[in-house]
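Table 4 source record.
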Amino acid sequence: MTETPELVIEFNSLRAEGPLHHRYKKLLNIQADLRITVGGREWFSQPMFPVVELAAAADRWLSRGGDFVFETMEAEESGGVGQVVENI
């Protein structure tokens, strides 16, 4: 039987980037440098990541189950792809 690798989610340098007047701004503008390792190997690393938005998405996922897929709302703002974290 294969042991499931350890998943570690770390963040540092927590900061607010811009105004926090609306819920949407709190989700996007509270950021940190995020690092995810699986089995001791770096799987994902991103500076200035919207960690509050990620936490809200994880909370919704824990309520419903299934695969975890995350795409930041910043993708809509910038027209970019954004970060997608699947099947953790």
